[in-house]
Amino acid sequence: MGVLTKPCWAEGSRPAWTRRVLGPNRAGSRGGVLAIGTLGEGCCAAITPAWSSGVNPALDRAGGFEGNAGAEKAGESDARADPIPLKDAIPAGSSFGRRAGSRPVRWGIGILAAALLLAPPAQAQGILAQVKARGHLVCGVSQGVAGFSMPDSQGQWRGLDVEFCRAMAAAIFDDPDKVRFIPLASPARFTAVQSGEVDVLARNTTWTLARDTAAMNFGAVNFYDGQGFLVRKDRNIAEVRQLDRATICLQQGTTTELNLADWFRAHGLTQSVVTFANSEQTLSGYESGRCDALSTDKSSLFGERLKTADPEAHVILDELISKEPFAPALRQGDDQWRDIVTWTHYAMLNAEEAGLTRENVEATRKAPASPNVRRILGLEGRYGQDLGLTNDWAFRIIRHVGNYGEVFSRNVGEGSALKVPRGLNALWTQGGLQYGPPIR
Amino acid sequence: MSETFLRTAEVPPRAPPAAVGGPFAWVRRNLFSSLGNAATTLVVLALLALVLPPLFRFLVLDAVWTGGSGEACRPEAAGRPVGACWAFIHEKLGYLVYGSYPLAERWRPDAVFALMLLGGGWMLWLDAPRRGLGALFFFGVFPVAAYLLLAGAPALGLKPVPTGLWGGMIVTFVVSLVGIVVSLPLGILLALGRRSDLPVIRLACTLFIEFWRGVPLITVLFMANVMLPLFLPGDITIDRLLRPLVGVALFASAYMAEVVRGGLQAVPPGQAQAARALGLTELQILRFVVLPQAIKIVVPGIVNTFIGLFKDTTLVSIVGIADFIRVLESARIDPRWAAPSVPVTAYAFAALFYFAFCFGMARYAAFIERRLAAGEGAR
C-alpha cells in the first residue's frame, strides 16, 4: 500500500457524522463497497506502524524530548524506539485499538480512503526508477552517531552508514556523491521510510521482527552490535559474570536496562542500577566512581571511553549480552530495490574476501585472476543488469568506496579514532559473521 | 554687676554631613541604605565571589585556545589543569555557522549576513536617514535576496543548494527571522481582525489564534515533519525546512496577535472617537492614532515574543533540522575531539551565543522604551 491516507483513529473513534451521513447498511452495492472496505483496512494497517513504532514509544519511553540529544548514540536511540504492538500502546477497553464493529462506519472509512486514493498512485514505478529519474539517492541517516553517520568539520557526512549510501549511489550512478543525506530523529525515522521520504534508511537501526513486519524490509546486516560493558582496568574483570552484585550506570529510558535485568536474572546474578538522563551524565557518574561498570551498545562504548579523563584506564569487555544487528531499512513491497540494498553490502563483502580494494581494483580489472573476480567485476555474466543496474555495479562500488574491510577500518576500526575491533564483523573466513553469498 | 559670658575659644566645627556625591555615597545610597539591603548586598557579593573566579578560570585562564585534536585538551598533554577547549570551537566554527553548506558557496550566506546587518541596522538605528526605505528593504527586498542567495538561482548563476545542506547559525537565523518578519504584520492583522465588527472575519481570526495557541509548538513540528508526509501522495514532497518554517511563523503570529490586541484594548476609545470627529477615515484612524499608541504600549510584549521565538527555534532540531544546537550536538560527539571538557565547552558556547542575541534584543527594546517614554516626560 503505497499511499497512506487514513489514520486508524478515525475508524476507532467513530465520528457521529459517519453514521448520520451514511445511514444504515444498504444492500445492492456490496461488491464495490467490499473492495473499498479492504482498501480502507489496508491503509489502516499500513499506517499503524507510524503510530506504534515511530512516534509513541519514543515519547513514552524517553519521557519527553530532552533526552533526544543523548539518544543519538547508537545504543539507546535504537533500543528505545522498539515498536510495541498497538494493542499494548492503548489502554485496554478503549475503542481505539479495536477494529470498529459496525459496517457503515467501516464503509465510511473505506469511501473516504478511496476518495483520497484518487490522487495519482505514488509508487506506480519502482524506487530504482524514481531514484534514477531524480538523479540522486535520498538516504536517511542519524543526526550524529560517531563512526556511523556524522558530519565532519567541513559539514561532509562521514561514517559506516554514510559510506553504505555512497556505495549505493556509486552502484546506481557511478558517482558516490549523488546522494542526499536526511538526518532523522529517532522517532521520525520509520515514518520517513514508510512515507517514501527516504529511499533507504541507514541509521544504525536494529533489525527486529516487529520492525520488519511494520511496512518495512531490511537489507543485509552491515554491523553486528550488542550491549557491552565498560569497566576499570584495575578491577581485573574479564567477563560479565564477575559483575555479580555490581552497580551499573545506564542511561534512562532505554531497553539497555531491560536487557541487563533479563541477563542477570537468567544467570542467577544480582546487580543494582543507577540511571542518568543523558550519556554525559552517565559517563561522569561512572567516572566519579558511583558505578563499577557502564553499559550501553558496544559500538558507542568506544566513543565513551575516549571521553574519559584517562582512556587507558578502562577496558571494554568482549562479551555481549544482547543482539543488535544494524541493517539498512527500506519500504516494503519493492523486491528489486531490496535486492539492490542487500547486494550492495554483499558486493563489499565479496570484494574483501577476494582481496579487491579501492587501490587495486582498476589494475585487477585489466587482468583478473579468477572467474570469481571476473564475475564480481562484471566481466562475466549479466548479474548487474538482472539487478536493474549495469554489469560493472560492484566494480563501481569498490572503485569509489572500497570493500567492507576498508570502510570498516576507515570509519570505526583501526584507521579511525574509535578503534573498534572487527569482532563479530570480521569475515566468516576470519571467525566473524559477515558472510557475502556468492555473486554467480 | 552683671556678668557677661564671652566665649574665648571657637566652637569646634561639626562633622561634615555624610557625603551626598561621589562613588562612596552612591554605594551607600544604593547598596547599604538599610540593614536588609546591606545583608542582600553582602550575600550577592559572596555568591559572585564564589561563582565568578572559577568560571573565569575555566573559560579564560585554564582554557586551551589552539590545537588540532581533542588530545590538546587533555590535562596530560597540556601539562596543567584544562578548562574550556576553545580549540574545538575554533576547528568546528565553519560547521557551526554554515552546517553542511558547500565550502565553495559559503560567501553566499556571508552576503546574507551582511545584508541582514545592513537592513537591521538601518531599521533599528532611529536617526538613520530614510528609515522608511530601510523598512522596505528589510521586509521586502531582504527576504527575496536572502532566499535567492541561500537557495540559489540558476538564472543568476547561483548554484542551487538544497535546504538539507543548510545548517547551524544559518538555519537558526532563517527560522527566527522568518518568524519575526511574518509574525509582526500577520499578528497585527489578526489582532485587528479579532476586534472587527464583521462576524465572519472575527470568527476566522479567533479560530486561527485559538487553534495555534491551543497546540504546543512541538506538536506542530511533529505533524509537519513526521506525520505530514504520510498524508501526502508520495510524489508530492514539501521541503523539509519549509514545513517547520511555516509552522513556526503561524505559531508566532498567533501569540503576536494576542500581544497586539492587548495594546489595542489599552488605547482609550476616546482617541478613536476624537479622530473620527476630526473627519479621519477608519484607515487613517488606525494608522495615525490607534496603532502607534497601541504598538508603543506593547513594545515589551513584542520583544518578549521575539526572544521566546528565537529560543524556541531550537525545537526544530528535534524534527531533524540541523539548527545551531543540533550541529553543536553533532560536532561534540566527534571522536577526534573526544576530551573531558569538550561537551561543557560546546554548551558554554551555545549559552554565550543565545545570551548575546537575547540580551541584545532586550537592551534594544529598553532603549526604545526609554525613547518613547521621553516624549511624555515620564521617565
Automatic annotation (TrEMBL), chain A:
<dbReference type="InterPro" id="IPR051455">
    <property type="entry name" value="Bact_solute-bind_prot3"/>
</dbReference>
<comment type="similarity">
    <text>Belongs to the bacterial solute-binding protein 3 family.</text>
</comment>
<dbReference type="InterPro" id="IPR001638">
    <property type="entry name" value="Solute-binding_3/MltF_N"/>
</dbReference>
<keyword id="KW-0813">Transport</keyword>
<dbReference type="InterPro" id="IPR018313">
    <property type="entry name" value="SBP_3_CS"/>
</dbReference>
<feature type="domain" description="Solute-binding protein family 3/N-terminal">
    <location>
        <begin position="136"/>
        <end position="363"/>
    </location>
</feature>
<keyword id="KW-0732">Signal</keyword>
<dbReference type="Pfam" id="PF00497">
    <property type="entry name" value="SBP_bac_3"/>
</dbReference>
<protein>
    <recommendedName>
        <fullName>Solute-binding protein family 3/N-terminal domain-containing protein</fullName>
    </recommendedName>
</protein>
From TrEMBL, chain B:
<keyword id="KW-0813">Transport</keyword>
<dbReference type="InterPro" id="IPR010065">
    <property type="entry name" value="AA_ABC_transptr_permease_3TM"/>
</dbReference>
<feature type="transmembrane region" description="Helical">
    <location>
        <begin position="35"/>
        <end position="56"/>
    </location>
</feature>
<feature type="transmembrane region" description="Helical">
    <location>
        <begin position="211"/>
        <end position="232"/>
    </location>
</feature>
<feature type="transmembrane region" description="Helical">
    <location>
        <begin position="133"/>
        <end position="153"/>
    </location>
</feature>
<feature type="transmembrane region" description="Helical">
    <location>
        <begin position="107"/>
        <end position="126"/>
    </location>
</feature>
<feature type="domain" description="ABC transmembrane type-1">
    <location>
        <begin position="169"/>
        <end position="358"/>
    </location>
</feature>
<dbReference type="InterPro" id="IPR043429">
    <property type="entry name" value="ArtM/GltK/GlnP/TcyL/YhdX-like"/>
</dbReference>
<feature type="transmembrane region" description="Helical">
    <location>
        <begin position="165"/>
        <end position="190"/>
    </location>
</feature>
<keyword id="KW-1133">Transmembrane helix</keyword>
<dbReference type="Pfam" id="PF00528">
    <property type="entry name" value="BPD_transp_1"/>
</dbReference>
<feature type="transmembrane region" description="Helical">
    <location>
        <begin position="244"/>
        <end position="264"/>
    </location>
</feature>
<dbReference type="InterPro" id="IPR035906">
    <property type="entry name" value="MetI-like_sf"/>
</dbReference>
<comment type="similarity">
    <text>Belongs to the binding-protein-dependent transport system permease family. HisMQ subfamily.</text>
</comment>
<keyword id="KW-1003">Cell membrane</keyword>
<protein>
    <submittedName>
        <fullName>Inner membrane amino-acid ABC transporter permease protein YhdY</fullName>
    </submittedName>
</protein>
<keyword id="KW-0812">Transmembrane</keyword>
<feature type="transmembrane region" description="Helical">
    <location>
        <begin position="344"/>
        <end position="362"/>
    </location>
</feature>
<keyword id="KW-0472">Membrane</keyword>
<feature type="transmembrane region" description="Helical">
    <location>
        <begin position="285"/>
        <end position="307"/>
    </location>
</feature>
<dbReference type="InterPro" id="IPR000515">
    <property type="entry name" value="MetI-like"/>
</dbReference>
